[in-house]
Amino acid sequence: MNILILISHPGSFGGTHRVAINLANRMSSDYRVHLASVYGRNEQLQFALDSQVSTTVFLPEEDRLRSMAWALSKPLRNYLRQHDIDVVLLIGNYHGFVTLPTILTYRKARFIFCDHGALMNQWDALPVRWMRRWCSRLCAATVTLTQQSRRDYIERFNLPADKVHAIYNWLDPQLTDCSHSYDVDSRSLLWAGRLDEEKGADLLLDIARQLLPRFPQWRWLVFGTGEMHGQMTEEIRRLGLEDQLLLRGQVSNLYDEYPKSSIVTLTSYREGLPLVLLEGKACGRPLISFDVSTGPAEIIRDGVDGFLIPPFDTAAYTQRLTEMMADDRLRLEMSRRSKETISQFDQETIYAQWRELLEGLCPTKISDSVKPGSQR
């Protein structure tokens, strides 16, 4: 089976691109995989790619979506035809926009639309809703990150249930094997993400204002960069929290930070499937998050391995976090139970779901899927 995975451009560090590369690397042991970029001929790929994966870039640079959609159609169709591509994976909303003309005109490949957000998070954004509606109708299958988003697609767009599949992103295998013990004496909270409105940087500041003066021995470490960095720095100084709320910027390996933390926190207004919670869970950290429409509730068991807080009640968030920080036994018990459900995010468990989907779409290609020496 020949599979093409489409990304926007090679130079991106984004989570969607990391997922695409992970899929390409794992699938390359069983299928002939092509990784194609819409634009960016002078850019270098930012993640390690298996040497068996073929790569190409279609357009030299980014342009308006409508212009790119029509400019992409001919070279993409030619590539699909030349390499006898059976399945095309469109990872993210951007690729839904720019490939619609190709989906409408090229019938020899099966297209899979992979929504790495959540339908209801942008329901009021009419162009995005329109794209999602048509991609989910025209593509052979739609893949969502959560069960809730799958239900939303089926109900809102009146789609057949067997056409929409919820497949989680898998965890890095080195995290699923994480053996770090929980340090109950740690006095460190961890937050990681873009410093912007969507990730709830303003909510983080409000909670810190209420919480940290009560716990002078604790530190809240914030990893990431973004448009609100300057504003947050100024507000932290105004609140007098320079020694407790610490902006650490981007780090080369966030995995090293989880074992040092006592609690992993999330303050987002909306999420798909938040990787920071998954990674914290894999390392046995207690978790806390607002119970936004998709994501956290499929990771956190409220009161068991963390807390889900009514959106966006910062007073309730502060109260629950206070309980966790003040009670060593509670944190230790939550840590002990945190990894009980981590197997559902295991790489091979998730990859088996992808194989079932791919080979269900192209049953005549199954005998052509396994490379010599690969493992079934």
Key terms:
seven-stranded parallel β-sheet; 376 residues; 13 strands; six-stranded parallel β-sheet; globular; Rossmann fold; 12 helices
What this model shows, in words?
With 376 residues, the protein is α/β, with parallel strands linked by helices. It folds into 2 domains: 2-170 and 346-368, Glycogen Phosphorylase B (Rossmann fold, 3-Layer(aba) Sandwich), CATH 3.40.50.2000; 173-344, Glycogen Phosphorylase B (Rossmann fold, 3-Layer(aba) Sandwich). 38% of the residues lie in helices and 17% in strands. The chain has helices at residues 15-27, 65-82, 93-105, 126-138, 147-157, 173-176, 201-211, 229-239, 275-282, 314-326, 328-338, 347-361; strands spanning 2-7, 32-39, 54-59, 87-91, 110-115, 141-144, 164-166, 188-192, 219-223, 245-249, 263-266, 287-290, 306-309. Strands 3-2-1-4-5-6-7 form a 7-stranded parallel β-sheet, sandwiched between helices. Strands 10-9-8-11-12-13 form a 6-stranded parallel β-sheet, with helices on both faces. The longest helix has 18 residues, at 65-82. It is globular. The model has no long low-confidence stretch (mean pLDDT 92).
